[in-house]
Specification:
The complex is a heterohexamer, with one copy of chain A, one copy of chain B, two copies of chain C and two copies of chain D. Chain A has two domains: 134 residues, no CATH class; 219 residues, MetI-like fold. Chain A contains 18 helices and three strands. Classes of the chains: A mainly alpha, B mainly alpha, C mainly alpha, D alpha/beta. Chains in contact: A-B, A-D, A-E, B-D, B-E, C-D, C-E, C-F, D-E, D-F, E-F. Chains A and B meet through helix 2, helix 10, helix 11, helix 12 and helix 13 of A and helix 6, helix 9, helix 10, helix 11 and helix 12 of B. Bound molecules: adenosine-5'-triphosphate (2 copies), magnesium ion (2 copies) and phosphate ion.
Chain lengths: 443, 462, 235, 272, 272, 235
């Protein structure tokens, strides 16, 4: 084949360019090989995408399968005699009074009535079956509805996490007693409760309303969630105006000189600084030098704000740059001043881009963990923060902490918290996409 | 609360000045029967801003400074014997007094603390009164002066614009301040660290075994047990990054090529956001995934193959990190590939190229610098990544190239050292800052290079 | 010009061109009409008017040439527009020439008056002039209405004028042969007759231009010719 | 062509009559530099009141640069330095005391690519009057908008959809919208920088027709790459080459008998 | 104009001679749809060998769409459906068996905006021969590159900097480079879609000159918005309107005496 | 045309136009030359050649008109180019007309031969023809070299021809007055002389076009005229 072509072209060497017919033949002969190469590349692309999507699905699958049960837990239903004398000795429903009361004992009595433990040792074991939050629960119930006093009402109590794990089948009956966390006695109690139909598997009322707790069955994410919101609010309030102002200044006002160049390089570099370094800076500057308290959302928000600032600035600048110069020319040509051009045209047109950038920055901040560890938001805080200066933690840090705990139930709770966090993130990203779609203009 | 009320009042007054200025301009127009230089509301804004801004400045100076001044002044009221005592710490004392001021009392504080607190409280009242007076004077004079400035010649729009521009310019300085803060916070502690540990030992030492001095002292006097050779950390970081790249570069690149060149618009609209979801997942989730799903899985499948895989292996962390950075590569590459003008593709197709040839010979070469930059950015992301390695890579400072073993990284060491209570004097604590410094230098270097490449590449099309 | 150009100023320009051309055409028509009438009435004042009036036609022609040239330069006209302009330029020249002939006839009429000219037998300049005048009128009408059929008709009617001319030529030469005194008169009459024939000839040129204007192509069949005066050997 | 025509030496001096009897804009010995680079070299020209003048010349000869001197749009380019004097009604527009904002309202501008604001048609036109405070009330503003759109020959086409976005119009309509927008602030002069280069022949013809009409009320300076366009719309034409103003004159004369060799060469397609 | 000319009814049929004696490309009853929208309506035309034919018509009339049918560039648009038959040398290019790659090698294309690859000048031209394997060795490739650049009239200007990037050339040079690149794969037909619309008059004139020369060796189809350009470069002209081919004919005739009313109206600036 | 257009095909077109025009011009020159020579030599064959050769000139004129029209339509020429074309169109018409006159003279020469014409006293058609021939040559030269000075000179030299014509007119009429037999001969001679005068006149028109071509403006001063033949009342 090639021989023939060679001959053909030799004839045309004087013409230098191959003549069209020969060219057509050459192309036709090589086309099969070229086509197969083509399909190979396409295949590689498909495989790559497939792999990435598989990873993603696997990740979601594993989180969801682990986390879904985390939203549920086992409860035991007990008949509680709401004796005002014992629960609320001072009779004023005050915290002090309820604290002094003896709600736990009432619960235990009700429990003992069913499972009939014998002896101190058994009673001690039996007491542990119901989660230690029982008295708090009763206190809360009477506070909400003082009419309960004097009645005997069925109340549900969370079971201890070991019992929970047993019921879920993580702790096997077959395992020798010495190797499992609960004794045969306790299993007997549970069987009894089960026979009575008093054990139920229900949506956990702790996961969303509880806060950090050493008892896995009582641990919830409300505190972390509020902490996250507070932190993010601080972050947004600082980062958005600063970011937009900086972007506007750099793109529209600043003359190109050394200083603006330095600022630009600076911002680009800040975007690349690992997040943990921002934590170090927060630790060294805000806490050590300015003497601000540790663990508060204010500091966390400030650190995250500085961290997301480059993201916002860069995306805002991109948005501003995407505003066609022709619009500026048009406004200048009519006699608008620089600021009018900026505020009437550039910012409104760039706003969708700026907002999307900001939301994405916020989403990033929401999931950020390392810098907050540095400034001590990792502390074990039971109270739900009320303001930005109350100590608190945030969702991802909560996840990090729980992930370290040994109790089986924490794995599920962690996964559940992750689901909530991801839901939150997806909502934010959806908002960003929606905004972009809604506000995006074609020009 | 006080500050909040004061701020509200200041804002209201400046609003009033807006109305004043606005009306004055209106009146001027009516009396002169001639248009002013600027639209009327600019006169209002001018008055309002010139009243508000200096007052806010004064306000913040007062509220920030008073605590410092009080802290200095209160020293007078601390008894000598307390100052002279062995474990005197001014910060703690100050905290005691502050707690007392705010009514948080744990047990019975010493008398002098209560006294100091009383004095402090009286200062606070005085300073509040002073603040109010000074703010009032400032807002009224500056507001009034600006009001007086308004006449038919005055160009309020230009004045307002100058003010706003200044505000904008000032905000852009924050970025610089942040950088300075970062450098400041890292460099000083690092210098102190290198005063304790020679830098060559840090840079070239092969054993990383930091101990708190306190622990050292308590721990049966094994002097010199602490070792700060950072090589294992770098090696670990490097190992994990390499694994991550091995996962993410091919997947990311091929995805990008597929999405931008082969996929139909529907496919693209579906898969691209899906890939970007990977980037949106918080790292702590990846860490959790790596530690609780991937690592056990690797371990069990490893043992089936007769391999001994550590429960916290570099492989698990690297794999998961690789997944995490897929979208950094795919998205960025997709962007740069898309930025290659359609006209170049048309040119290619017009000449009779297959898709493969168009991609490989025209599009990719044109986008190559951008692709490389995206990879470098991904690397710097990997190097700086913290949570995955903290949760999945372990803390064992092994110097090994075996991905099946546990390794530790720079970032995970920083976190472990700095989380919790620190002794700021200890070499261990300080070592975290030195590590951070090296981390910054490395990531910035890569970033710098990548951005440079990207910029050069952009200029080609602009 | 049934529909307008988007650029109204182009239409304005074309209109200006056309107006001037028609003015020129009507001027030429008038002058010719007058010079023929004057030939009969021998009114010296009127004759002078025709002679002096020719300068107006010259100016109009210059104007049309200038306008047409500028339109071509400034507006790059195409197709029918371009034909219109080129045709206008050519027709204008012809009208100007017709004007020239009117003046020449008038000049010669003046001389004939001096020579105490009275009609020669068999020669009716007035009739020949009238016929030619009708041709001019028709050709102008054909231009205005873009009526190529009329134009072709006009063109074909030139034969009659040619024949008439040949006949008059013979008659005049015959008169001169009969009476040598008539030589000066005859010479001028010959030229007057010839001039009218030339005018009719030019009218056919205009008619051909009108045909080109309408159809975009040249009227190709050979024009019937019947002026044989240059071939004539009078007996 | 022939030896009488001015050659190299005369490059230094503009051929033709640069002055105008009732001049509105006067440029005197204007030089413009971009950094080191001289883009306009000693140009002197008058722009009369109610005249349409076009600037032609090869690419990069400085037409746009010179045009943008008239309303100080060059101010937005940092490296651009302008020497010489440009006056509008005897007032130096580069005077320190002059505020560019009202100046630009007096000297409107229409750009190469139609650039309506991404707002409604109404708001596009109303923007100028609003920022300059030209209208007393809504009704007055409505009037201004309507009148401007009418003058721009767009009213008929858009009167029933004033609130739909200006970017939704066709290219030619957009350009007329931009002209309406410029007219709305009652300028005295309108500068147009290749206003038809993004349009097809039909839209172009419509804009040219509009320019022709507006020429009765405004002074219009139009930069164009199309010699035919210059020929069609303007009464006077100025030919630039390498930053110099080579020749100015009546359009008719420039296109039938230019005096300068270079003008001739450019106009008849011989430069290259 | 006058009543003899064909009116509305004749819109259905193309006026003038659509056939060509030595036709290279033949389009027969071609319809093109973008989704529901019919962009080309029953067009039949021949394109002769070694002739320059230009497509003119108002914006959106489907010139580009039809042009891109000839090398199946429309394949890249999903919604585009083509009916009818287009043959090159009697071979139906929309045949299932036909691979577009060799087809596009035979039918080169030059685009509106010059689009050189961001490679060296040499590599730009060598790209086509390389991917198609047209050259046996380096020397041969050098020859092809040189010859193509020479034919594109660019050799003189770039022979001493073949390795500098093609994007560094001026617009007109870039467009000539694109033409050289198209020539290098020895096409039989060259399609050009408004090849000069991004260029200034001088660069445009150079490209037109080039097209004129290339017309002796290749069949060239050129879409242009500029009637003058069509008049200058092509021997035949086709006028499109609303997707229909209204008239085809010798350029000389189209521009001096078009047969169809609409052609006349468009050419003399009366549509609108 | 000292420098080239970027579009060489434009130059080609212009060259084609120019070539045809020059061919036409030289043709007209030749024909005129021949018809004058033939008038002296009375060679019937040569005369026929001139008469039949005129059709070539007609065709060349049509060609020039067509080419010029197409150039204007296709290339939108400007300034000097446009002048060149318009001028070419006009000059071509004139050359064609000169050709016509040559034919007419030849026709009449044939008749004169039949009439056994021999020179009339005081009439030297050959001399007049030669002078006019020189004018044609000069005007062609002025066109080729774009030499407006030469054109003006040619234009001014028309006066001599006019004077000559007036004189010959008088002589011929005088001869006819003397001898009535000479009437037919005289009539033809009168027309021949007139025709030569017309040719010279046309040459001045060409000269004016050349002036316009070079200078872009019309030669405005009135042309000196000395043909008073139409005003003459021979004694
Ligand atoms: N912003 C700028 N910075 C530096 N040089 C510039 C700038 N704008 C234009 N120039 C230079 O100034 C000269 C004149 O440019 P200008 O845009 O005025 O030309 P023009 O005649 O309008 O060209 P075109 O017809 O291509 O629009 C050119 O050499 C150009 O390179
Ligand atoms: N990709 C597309 N999808 C849908 N419709 C299209 C597409 N491309 C073109 N069209 C439509 O097809 C018709 C013809 O378009 P085409 O681009 O061929 O016109 P054109 O004559 O080349 O116009 P122009 O002179 O503006 O380039 C137009 O109505 C256009 O809106
Ligand atoms: Mg006259
Ligand atoms: Mg003839
Ligand atoms: O105008 P003519 O003398 O040539 O008939």
């Amino acid at each position: 084949m090639l021989c023939m072509l060679l001959k053909n072209t030799e004839n045309n060497m004087n013409k230098k360019i191959i003549n069209p017919e020969d060219a057509t033949n050459i192309v036709k002969n090589s086309i099969v090989k070229r086509r197969s190469k083509d399909s190979r590349l396409k295949l590689f692309g498909r495989v790559a995408i497939g792999l990435a999507v598989c990873f993603l699905l696997f990740l979601f699958y594993s989180i969801f399968t682990k986390g879904y049960p985390g939203f549920f837990q086992y409860y035991v239903t007990l008949d509680i005699n709401f004796d005002r004398e014992r629960i609320d000795p001072k009779g004023d429903l005050s915290d002090n009074s309820l604290f002094d009361g003896d709600a736990s004992a009432i619960v235990n009595e009700s429990l003992f009535f069913i499972i009939e433990p014998k002896g101190r040792k058994e009673k001690k074991l039996a007491k542990k079956i119901v989660s230690s939050g029982k008295d708090v629960r009763i206190a809360k119930m009477v506070k909400d509805d003082p009419g309960l006093f004097g009645t005997v009402t069925k109340v549900k109590f969370a079971l201890d996490d070991d019992i929970d794990s047993f019921l879920r089948g993580y702790i096997k009956r077959e395992t020798p007693e010495s190797e499992r966390r609960i004794s045969d006695k306790v299993i007997g109690f549970i069987d009894k409760l089960n026979e009575e139909g008093r054990i139920s598997y229900e949506f956990s009322d702790y996961i969303l309303s509880g806060s950090a707790s050493g008892n896995p069955e009582m641990a919830g994410i409300k505190g972390a969630f509020i902490g996250s919101i507070l932190t993010l609010s601080v972050c947004l309030l600082i980062a958005f105006p600063l970011g937009v102002a900086t972007a506007v200044y750099l793109e529209e006002i600043a003359k190109k000189n050394r200083i603006t160049e330095i600022i630009e390089v600076n911002i680009n570099n800040l975007a690349a600084v690992p997040s943990v370094v921002f934590g170090i800076m927060g630790l060294a500057i805000f806490i050590s030098i300015f003497g601000m308290p540790r663990s508060i959302p204010l500091v966390g928000g400030m650190v995250l704000a500085l961290m997301t600032l480059p993201t916002i600035i860069i995306s805002s600048r991109a948005a501003i740059r995407a505003v066609p110069p022709s619009v500026r020319d048009a406004a200048y040509g009519i006699g608008a001043s620089k600021l009018q051009v900026i505020f009437h045209h550039v910012i409104p047109l760039a706003m969708p881009g700026m907002l999307t950038g900001t939301i994405i920055g916020m989403a990033q901040a929401l999931g950020e963990t390392a810098p907050l560890l540095m400034i001590g938001m990792v502390a074990f805080i039971v109270d739900i923060p009320n303001s930005v200066v109350d100590p608190g933690t945030v969702l991802p840090v909560q996840i990090f902490m729980w992930a370290d705990f040994a109790e089986r139930m924490f794995i599920q709770k962690t996964s559940a918290a992750i689901i909530v966090l991801l839901g939150f993130l997806i909502a934010m990203n959806a908002l960003a996409v929606y905004l972009r779609k809604k506000l995006e203009r074609r020009w | 609360m006080f500050s909040f009320y004061l701020l509200t009042v200041i804002l209201i007054i400046s609003l009033l000045f807006f109305l004043l200025g606005y009306n004055r301009a209106k009146n001027l127009i009516n009396s002169n029967k001639k248009n002013l230089h600027s639209l009327t509301h600019y006169y209002g804004i001018f008055c309002s801003l010139s009243a508000l801004l200096p007052t806010l400045g004064v306000f913040f100076i007062f509220t920030i400074c008073d605590d410092f001044i009080f802290a200095e002044l209160i020293k007078e009221y601390i008894p000598d014997e307390v100052i002279n005592s062995k474990d005197y710490n001014f910060t703690i004392v100050l905290a005691q007094i502050n707690n007392s001021v705010e009514g948080l009392v744990f047990g019975t504080p010493p008398q002098w603390v209560t006294n100091a607190a009383e004095i402090w409280k009286s200062w606070v009242i005085k300073s509040n009164i002073l603040t109010v007076i000074v703010c009032a004077i400032t807002i009224l004079t500056s507001g009034f002066l600006s009001y007086k400035k308004i006449n038919s010649e005055f160009r309020s729009r230009n004045a307002v614009e100058k003010i706003v521009m200044t505000i904008l310019a000032v905000s852009s300085v924050i970025a610089i301040l942040t950088t300075i803060a970062i450098i400041f916070s890292v460099v000083f502690e690092s210098i102190r660290f290198f005063a304790l540990i020679p830098y060559d030992e840090f840079l070239f030492g092969t054993v990383w075994n930091p101990q708190f001095e306190g622990a050292e002292r308590a721990g049966s006097g094994q002097e010199g047990l602490s070792q700060y050779g950072a090589i294992p950390l770098f090696a670990g970081t490097f190992l994990i990054s390499i694994i991550a790249l091995c996962v993410s570069v091919p997947i990311g690149l091929f995805s990008a090529i597929y999405l931008s060149e082969y996929a139909s618009s529907k496919e693209r609209a579906f898969f691209k956001p899906l890939l970007e979801v990977l980037a949106g997942i918080p790292t702590v989730v990846y860490g959790f995934f790596a530690a609780l799903t991937v690592a056990p899985f690797l371990r069990s499948s490893g043992s089936m193959l007769g391999l001994d895989i550590a429960s916290e292996s570099a492989l698990a962390a690297g794999l998961v990190m690789g997944i995490m950075i897929i979208p950094f590569i795919s998205s960025l590459s997709d962007d740069v590939i898309n930025a290659v003008p359609q006209s170049l593709r048309d040119a290619g197709y017009g000449l009779g190229s297959t898709k493969n040839e168009t991609v490989m010979k025209i599009v990719l070469p044109a986008a190559l610098p951008g692709v490389v930059a995206s990879i470098i950015l991904a690397v710097s992301r990997a190097v700086g990544e913290t949570m995955i390695v903290v949760m999945a890579a372990g803390l064992a400072a092994n110097l090994t190239a075996n991905p099946l073993e546990a390794v530790t990284t720079v970032t995970s060491q920083i976190v472990t050292i700095l989380v919790g209570d620190q002794e700021f004097e200890s070499a261990k604590t300080l070592s975290a800052f030195a590590l951070a410094l090296t981390l910054i230098i490395i990531t910035l270097g890569m970033n710098f290079y990548a951005l440079h490449v990207v910029k050069k590449y952009r200029e080609q099309y602009e | 010009m049934d529909n307008k150009h988007i650029l109204s100023s182009f239409d304005d320009d074309l209109k200006k061109l056309n107006d001037n051309l028609l003015k020129l055409g009507n001027g030429a028509l008038n002058n010719f009409d007058n010079c023929i009438i004057n030939f009969g009435t021998q009114d010296l004042d009127e004759i002078e008017k025709v002679i002096n009036g020719d300068i107006v036609l010259d100016e109009l022609d210059d104007k049309v040439q200038k306008i047409g040239f500028e339109i071509i330069a400034l507006r790059a006209p195409q197709a029918a527009d371009l034909r219109r302009i080129i045709v206008a330029l050519k027709i204008a020249t012809i009208f100007e020439r017709i004007g020239d002939y009117s003046r020449n006839i008038s000049n010669r009429t003046k001389v004939l008056i001096d020579l105490k000219y009275s009609d020669l037998p068999g020669v009716n300049i007035g009739k020949m002039g009238q016929k030619t005048l009708t041709m001019i009128e028709d050709v102008i009408e054909s231009y205005v209405n873009e009526d190529d059929k009329l134009a072709v008709k006009v063109r074909n009617s030139d034969v009659k004028i040619d024949k008439m001319h040949t006949q008059y030529y013979l008659e005049i030469v015959a008169s001169m042969q009969r009476n040598k005194k008539l030589a000066p008169t005859g010479a001028h009459l010959l030229f007057i007759a010839k001039n009218i024939e030339r005018v009719a000839d030019y009218v056919t040129d205009i008619a051909e231009q009108v045909y080109f204007l309408v159809n975009g192509k040249v009227l190709s069949d050979l024009r019937p010719k019947a002026d044989e005066s240059s071939l004539i050997i009078p007996e | 062509m022939n030896s009488k025509k001015n050659d190299l030496k005369s490059l230094e001096l503009t051929v033709g009559d640069v002055f105008s009897k009732n001049a509105r804009l006067k440029a005197r010995n204007v030089n413009v530099f971009y950094g080191e680079n001289k883009a306009i070299d000693n140009v002197t020209i008058d722009i009369g009141s109610r005249e349409v003048i076009s600037f032609i010349g090869p690419s990069g000869c400085g037409k746009s640069t010179f045009l943008r001197c008239f309303n100080r749009m060059n101010d937005t380019i940092d490296s651009c330095v302008i020497q010489g004097e440009i006056t509008i009604d005897e007032e130096n527009i580069y005077d320190k005391k002059i505020d560019v904002v009202p100046l630009r309202a007096r000297i409107g501008m229409v750009f190469q690519k139609p650039n309506p604001f991404p707002k409604s048609i109404y708001d596009n036109v109303a923007y100028g009057p609003r920022i300059h405070g030209l209208s007393e009330n809504k009704e007055h503003l409505d009037n201004i908008v309507e009148e401007s759109l009418k003058r721009a020959g767009l009213w008929q086409e858009v009167s029933d959809r004033l609130s739909s976005p200006g970017t939704g119009l066709s290219g030619g309509q957009q350009q007329r919208l931009c002209i309406a927008r410029a007219i709305a602030v009652s300028p005295e002069v309108i500068l147009m920088d290749e206003p038809c280069s993004a349009l097809d022949p039909i839209a172009t013809a419509k804009i040219e027709e509009l320019i022709h009409e507006l020429g009765n009320e405004y002074s219009i300076v139009i930069v164009t790459h199309s010699m035919q366009q210059a020929a069609r719309v303007s009464k006077r034409t100025a030919y630039f080459h390498l930053g110099k103003l080579i020749e100015v004159g009546k359009t008719k004369e420039i296109f039938t008998r230019p005096k300068h060799n270079q003008t001739e060469a450019y106009i008849s397609g011989k430069i290259g």
